[in-house]
């Protein structure tokens, strides 16, 4: 379904108390997913108290047209610049280290 969202321009998710991720992981995939939203200009997230990430696990995410990123009451979601070179190791259970929820490039 993600592939069909290439024309998506605005995404707003609000008032979902139990939502933990926007895109669910497909356990059948063994490659690192690559999500591109070339037309997305606005992303608004509001009142999502359990939201931790857009996608759990390692992935590549691009939204070259993004102009507005608005978050309100998404207390468990943290935005920070990713240094993926530090995320290559597994934790004690052998689970790959999780990528930052919203990796951003330094500008």
From TrEMBL:
Regions annotated as coiled coil: none
The entry's keywords: Plant defense
Domain Disease resistance protein At4g27190-like leucine-rich repeats: from-to ranges: 1-84
Zinc-finger as UniProt keyword: no
Xref: Pfam families: LRR_RPS2
Keyword check for Plastid: no
Name of the molecule in the record: Disease resistance protein At4g27190-like leucine-rich repeats domain-containing protein
Species whose genome carries this gene: Citrus sinensis
